[in-house]
Amino acid sequence: MSSWKLLFMSLNRQHGFKARPALKGFLEEAMDGIERSRISPREAVDRAAKKFAEYIEAEKK
Amino acid sequence: MEKRQHPEKTKVTFWHGLSGPLGDTLNEMIAEFNKTHDDIEVVTIPISSYTALSQKLMASIQAKKQPDIAQVFESWTAKYIEAGVLCALDSLFNEDPNFTVEDLEDIYPVFRESNTFDGTMYSFPFNKSVRAYFYNKDEFYRNGLDPNYFPTTWDEFRHYNRILTRDTNGDGKIDRWGTNLNINEWQFINLLHQAGGRIIDDNGNPILNSDAGVEALQFLVDMLYKDKSAYLVRGYEGQNDFMAGIVAMYEGSSVSITHMRQEPINFNIGFAPLPTHKTNQSAVSGANIVVFKSGDRKRERAAWEFIKWFTAAEQTAYWSVKTNYMPVRRSAMQSDVIQNFLAKYPIYQGIL
After folding, report:
1. Which residues of chain A are within 8 Å of residue B79 when distances are taken between CB atoms?
2. Phi and psi (nearest 5°) for B231?
3. Is B295 exposed, middle or buried (0-12, 13-18, 19+ CB in 10 A)?
4. CATH number at residue B184
5. ipTM of the complex
6. Any B CB within 8 A of A13 CB
7. 20 to 30 A from A15, CA-CA: which of B175, B254, B267, B319?
8. Domain presence at residue B279
């Protein structure tokens, strides 16, 4: 199993240290979007998931 | 008189990122290990932060000068496995007649699983913590709430939050709050799990934007903008405001109390598990411990001896009552150390 997979699979059980700042950043952006632009939680969480997917893809390389 | 011959000590270097009262307890325990083991000496190198520890470990691996033992997170372990620099702990404990299958099974399954990579156990749980609520019992009492009861569901928590948010001096501004929110992934992951969701699916694709993800975020948003019973904070603001009596309920790591105790606490403090929703699942945090390959099996065995000692029921129980990290073994909860501690301080029942 590749290291990126080991890293991210562990997120469901424990939060891997390296992915934490990334996920935190995306969640902060989501909350910021809600606070400033009054986007919905649905839109905010979609944005966070999209950015997290991009982050994972970058980590795979 | 014949002079007693001491065996030559095997020196084991241990890099970690613990400081303050946590580092003090670790040093105390290592001194005890060294005193009770004639043939091994554990030498610690404290590193200022986990980030610095990660960088220093990576540099040491590139220079082929890694320590014997280090405190690590799962993502680091994954990289080190790929680099081929870790000893499989299975290979060490399988050849140790003093470490049995029962010993292994005594470790909580969640810890065994998260330290097992592709069927091999490369790390052992070391300092593990969970999220917990700290609350101001005096503030509960002042607002007609039972100070010995903490809300157990999201709905109940929101209800309490509204009651505890007040303008006490009539100037039209809120000066007492139910809670504050430090937006972080740990809190969100817990809420997501409690709503029945997951961060990623089995193929590694993010699914945090499921309906459960929306529900988790909506829960926070409703408290912030609909109820106006919570406010956003950064860094240690949340803990500081709790200590100052501005906020009644504060979510932190179970270890936060060890840091809070460094200052006087001017109110009756309570601890409680997180309120739950559709499930009561929550993520465990904290670091693990690994043994790096040294090419010297004697040193690797000595490193394992320390890990075995530190995670044995007696030591993990002591570590837990001194730091509020979780004991890593089930049997530790039945030990005199923890039972006496809980009898003396029953308020810790909620988080140990």
Report:
1. 3
2. -140, 160
3. exposed
4. 3.40.190.10
5. 0.80
6. yes
7. B319
8. no
